[in-house]
Amino acid sequence: MSGTRKSPTPRPLRIGTRASALALWQARHVASLIRALPAAPPVELVPITTTGDVRVDVPLWAVRGRAFFTKEIDRALLEDRIDVAVHSLKDLPTAMEPGLALAAVLKREDPRDAIVSRSGAPLSQLPPGARIGTSSLRRRAFLTRARRDLRLLELRGNVPTRLERLERGEYDAIVLAAAGLKRLGLEHRITQHLSPEEFPPAVSQGAIGVCTRADDPLSGTWLQPLDDLPTRLATTAERALLERIEGGCQVPLGALATEAGPSIHLHAAVCALDGSQLLSASGNAEATGPAAAALGVRLATELIANGAGGLIAAERAAQGRAEEP
User: Fold this and answer.
1) Of the residues 53, 74, 80, 91, which is catalytic?
2) What sections of 111-213 are H helices per DSSP?
3) Running DSSP on this structure, what letter comes out for residue 90?
4) Could you tell me which of 21, 74, 98, 115 has the fewest CB atoms within 10 Å of its CB?
5) CA distance 244 to 242
6) In what order do the strands lie in the sheet with 278-286?
């Protein structure tokens, strides 16, 4: 009597991710979506430590370079140690590593910034000289423009760590991405959502990007159903703007694109760190990939023509002087 031959177990789809609570939530969310597909392969998570996780002693705007939270994960992808890389799309450089493809952009969560205050007071009602924690130059610039009396203090670490430091009394309020709080079940901690018109979010904030190797169509097949077209178009416009301006986390630039039927609307602003100058631009385009990218380039060109290039250069020079000691 011949035995029954078992089919070989397919190799797991290896998903690379940072090990923070929020990054793991994002990776597990991607894994759950893949597992729900017909005939999906087994999936396993591969935690990877990034430069941004290690360099917690200084603000990232004071460190030269980019891709602080993505470089090591993308390197593992290129070296075939993982098959899929999950990123907060706002952390992914617009100039991606050669050989990688942005295979899916998941449906966007709330893109706004949020105030979490100890007293429950919104931004306008915080006392004079209130201590606000944030690690973002963009948030610093727009907060200063709104209220020049605030004391802006550095704040690094994952979301739970930042909330713990607030509770210990190190700050009167902190600014976090609403999306991260929602995904971790902490939406109830939000005191106030900041208006994206006055406080434009980081490019692609609230969106999850999933990358594969460009020469790995099999992995890409499992990710294609996860791609959300409205989010893809919106972030295409935002990332095209960022690439044209050649910004990064060291530049006080915010932008948000939204879909409105057959068109998309993009609003962007660059603000001086002392709040003294604000340059903004808005526009609409057809809701297609090429038109979205062209809209981002057009608004970036408009901002540069109106003086954004000089403003950004001045901020970078100031950062350079701050780094010298």
Assistant:
1) 91
2) 137-146, 159-167, 178-183
3) G
4) 98
5) 5
6) 253-260, 263-271, 278-286
- pLDDT in the model for residue 9: 60
CATH number of 8-106+207-227: 3.40.190.10
Residue extents of the structural domains in the chain: 8-106+207-227, 113-193, 228-325
Instruction: Give the per-residue pLDDT at 323.
Output: 40
Euclidean distance between CA atoms 160 and 157, whole angstroms: 8
Contact 245, 308 (CB under 8 A): yes
Q: Where are the extended beta strands (E) located within 21-64? A: 43-47
Q: What SS3 class is residue 161?
A: helix
The reply to whether 91 belongs to the active site is yes
Where the chain has pLDDT below 50, the residues are 1-2, 60-61, 63, 65, 249, 321-325
Q: Are 118 and 167 in contact (CB under 8 A)?
A: yes
The answer to whether 296 touches 239, Cβ cutoff 8 Å, is: yes
Q: For position 260, what pLDDT does the model report?
A: 82
Residue type, 171: Y
pLDDT in tens, 195-226: 999 999 999 999 999 999 999 999 999 999 99
Torsion sign over Cα 272, 182, 126, 197: positive
Nearest CA to 255 among 112, 120, 153, 158? 112
Digit-coded pLDDT (tens) for 237-264: 999 999 998 755 467 899 999 988 899 9
